[in-house]
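Appendix B. One record, verbatim.
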Amino acid sequence: MAEEKYFKSITVAEVLKAKQEDLGLKLVCCEDYLNREITHRNVNRPGLALCGYLENFRADLVQVIGRGEYSYCKSAPPEILKKNVVEMLAVGNVPCLVITAGQPPIEALAEACLKAQVPLFTTTLDTSVFVGELSAFLDEVVSPTTHLHGVLVNVSGLGILIRGEAGIGKSECAIELVKRGHILVSDDIIEVQRRRGNILIGSCPTMIRHYMEVRGLGIIDVEMLFGVGFTMESSRIEMEVNLVSAGNAPLDRLGIDQNKVNILGLDIPSLSIPVTPGRNLAILIEVAALNQRLKNQGIFSAREFSRKVLEKMGAKKNENKR
């Protein structure tokens, strides 16, 4: 199933509105140019760029002037510093510069920002604290994102993405899982983000949060029917379960092979379960989630069973040779 990938962005003005107090930001210059866009969750400390070395300079990131960079800026001749910063800001679309640790703005730095029309800020936070706070915020709002069709349920603490062709029973399976005490995250459309640390976070669009469409019943409110404890806004996605019509796909009877599915460049375990009359899919998914938790801990039951069988066969073969 094809993914619709896209990248979000946020303007400097929007960051200022949402996090000015938390980040301790104070604008020094270029108030008219706060519409510059931030498209990456990382930040950059432009130590070499301030010295005039611009090879591999990441101009698309927020530039942070920490204590080390600030010390150089204070000691450098003002005309050289201004020239280097103007050249640095001309490389690409620099969103803004931030001087950390409550250090006052440097005139040559402010003049270069004015000439390049790049906002300059100061913050009272230490460099490491500011970088951590800003990166965590940007990780939520500009991470690579895609939308998937399916159902996301948190089963025994493991985020299970249930997928399959239309009408195969994904929502009905999710309802049964909720009845068994598990938690619904999203039905029909799942917004998936790749977050820092190479994890996938699935969430529900606000408009359809805690609602489900069940064929024959229509739209139901899971939160009203079962209680607030049976829905959650987001969950890490750690496994895909693909519901398939019986006979449409070859099945691994032993479960030795570990199939994968790639979402936003990350591989997660994938399991295909055939749908046939009389099978309780919810219980199968519940057991699959528990089995995957064992695999995550290094316990692979199918491979352990296969190893024991092969050892037994080898032992019998040696006995017959005697």
